[in-house]
Amino acid sequence: MNRFRVKKVAVLGAGVMGAQIAAHLVNVKVPVVLFDLPAREGLKNGIVAKAVEGLKKLKPAPLGVAEDAALIQQANYEEHLDLLGECDLVIEAIAERMDWKLDLYRRMAPALAPHAIVASNTSGLSITRLAEALPEAIRPRFCGIHFFNPPRYMYLVELIAAPATLPQVLDDLETFVVRGLGKGVVRAKDTPNFIANRVGIAGMLATMREVENFGLSYDVVDDLTGKKLGRASSGTFRTADVVGLDTLAHVIRTLQDNLDADADPFYPSFGTPAVLQALLEMGHLGQKSKAGFYKKV
Ligand code: NAD
Question: Under CATH, domain 196-289 is a member of which superfamily?
Answer without folding.
Answer: N-(1-d-carboxylethyl)-l-norvaline Dehydrogenase; domain 2 (1.10.1040.10)
